[in-house]
Amino acid sequence: MEKHDFNPESLMMTYGYKPELSEGAVKCPIFQTSTFVFQTAEEGKAFFELAYGLREKSPKEELGLIYSRINNPNLEILENRLCLWDTSEDCAVFESGMSAISTVLLEFLKPGDLLVYSNPLYGGTDHFIHHFLSKIGVHTLGIMPNQDIDDITRMITNSGKADQLAMIYLETPANPTNDIVDIQMFVEIARQFSTKDKKTLVAVDNTYMGPLWQHPLQCGADLVLYSATKYIGGHSDLIAGAVLGAAELMLRVKTLRTFLGNMVSPHTAWLMLRSLETLKVRMDQQTSNAQIVANFLNRHPKVKHVYYLGLLKENSKAFSIYKKQCTAPGAMVSFDIEGGEKEAFTFLNHLRLMKLAVSLGSTESLAEHPKSMTHAGVDPEQCKKMNITDQLVRLSIGVEHPDDLVWDLEQALAKV
Ligand SMILES: *Cc1c(COP(=O)(O)O)cnc(C)c1O
Question: Which residues does a 6 A CB cutoff place in the pocket of ligand 1?
């Protein structure tokens, strides 16, 4: 037989799981155990030597199972399967997206360092940067989506902290307006500010697109982060996070995770293994529904503007970035309603199928009002600059029949 490389969606049911190690069970059981039995004391000693880096791994040797804060089969199989989507060397799963993000920032930043980040950021990330990192003496510099490379390079140089630029942290497309930035451009900026003994890392929160529609590691980023609560979990029934990247960086991330103890639980990891089996079909259906919804809203007289990657003007800068780094427009559709908060709330209160809730990427469609909900903590001046106004409504489109979604939007808009 010729060699054949299977696509990730074909491997999500089986990859990394050996039935013969689990009584032949076709499905991976939940390894609901805190600790693992060593066959001999010598084996226990050998496992710990590897876990604590006391000696080099011999070829073919693998770290044995020790204790579920360090390793557990559900977590390892899940991490191996997530690596397939992003073609990454290694992955670490966390108990939330925020714990994945905060662990990465804590591991790679120290007092005195400079962190450059894109605006807008997820509210929790924004809070961690401005209220925690600044408290421990990390300097921060925010970039707006429309700034070009010369502008950004000048800002970094003028900050007087260019020598300490340790990380560039991006979120693209950004929540809630689908603003996008060019990952390769920031990789180039990071290269310019790297020195022989200090590499400036680029980390990308890929929650809005991934792991299907955008692959930051292939654009040259060093780390990719997820709130796995969103598309990866996909059923609004768990909270989790993930980080992926080269083995050398992931060893540092996993070591800090061992000591913070913020790994995901075996049960939640098992739920995600189940979710990954349908990831591709869910996300395909979601993005196809979202395009139908966006087209409908775009023609509606009570809708002023639709923020959706599938509606970008072909001659815009955003469109060329989108074409370069995304493979689909995603399932997040935001729009400005004619009027203000009153009109937006009337619309939200009359939805019959879509649920009024925050979060995104799940099988059911959700609607919310960013200015008064997810982005309530963001500086009002900053909100205005980023089009987060009283008129803005954010939709996360699920797997329902598109006719029912359009019907629901139409009847709720009629109430306004
Ligand atoms: C939800 C979200 C997070 C935080 O993830 P949790 O799983 O809620 O901790 C981070 N980034 C983005 C873009 C998100 O949407």
Answer: 96-98, 122, 124-125, 171, 175, 205, 207-208, 227, 229-230, 239, 241
Classify strands 114-118 and 165-171 as parallel, antiparallel or unpaired: parallel
Check if the beta carbon of residue 412 is closer than 8 Å to that of residue 356: no
> What is the rounded CA–CA span in Å between residue 93 and residue 195?
30
Strands 90-94 and 223-227: unpaired
Please report how many Cα atoms fall inside a 13 Å half-sphere around the Cα of residue 407, on the Cβ side.
7
**pLDDT tens column, 136-154:** 999 999 999 889 999 999 9
Question: For ligand 1, atom 11, which residue shows the shortest CA distance?
Answer: 122
The answer to whether residues 413 and 367 touch, using CB atoms and an 8 Å cutoff, is no
Helices (H) and strands (E) in the chain, counts: 14, 12
Res 357: pLDDT: 98
Q: Is the whole-model pTM more than 0.70?
A: yes
- Give pLDDT, residue 377: 85
Task: Give Cα 207 to chain centroid, integer Å.
Answer: 2
Dump pLDDT digits (tens) for 360-374.
999 999 999 999 999
- How many angstroms separate the CA atoms of 166 and 109, rounded? 7
Q: Which of 110, 185, 126 is nearest to 150 (CA)?
A: 185
Q: Are 273 and 28 in contact (CB under 8 A)?
A: yes
Q: Nearest CA to 309 among 295, 219, 301?
A: 295
CA angle 238, 286, 10 (to 5 degrees): 75
Atom 7 (ligand 1) nearest CA: 97
CA of 111 to the centre of ligand 1 (A): 25
Q: Which domains does the chain have, with CATH numbers?
A: 69-276 (3.40.640.10), 279-414 (3.90.1150.10)
Ligand 1, from 122, 172, 358: best to mutate by most atoms within 8 Å of Cβ? 122
Q: Is the pLDDT of residue 403 over 80?
A: yes
- DSSP string of 115-164? EEEESS--HHHHHIIIIIITTTT-EEEEE-TT--HHHHHHHHHHTT-GGG
Could you identify the residue written with the tokens 């909270």? Answer: 239
Q: Whose CA is nearest to atom 5 of ligand 1?
A: 97
Cβ count within 10 A of residue 300: 15
